[in-house]
Amino acid sequence: MPHFEKHDIKSLNQKELEDFFVSLGEKPFRARQVYHWMHISHAGSFDEMGNIPQSLKEKLKERCELTVLRQKLAQRSKVDETAKYLFGLPDGNMIESVRMKYKHGNSVCISSQAGCRMGCRFCASTLDGLARNLTPAEMLEQVYRVQEDIGERVSHVVVMGSGEPLDNYDNLLKFLELLSDGNGLHISQRNITVSTCGIVPNMRRLAGEKLQITLAISLHAASQKKREELMPVARKYGLEELLEACGYYFGQTGRRITFEYSLVGKVNDRPQDARQLAGLLKGQNCHVNLIPVNPIKERAYVQPDGQAVKEFRQALEKQGITVTVRREMGRDIDGACGQLRRRQMG
Ligand code: SAH
Question: Across residues 189-212, what is the average pLDDT?
Answer without folding.
Answer: 98
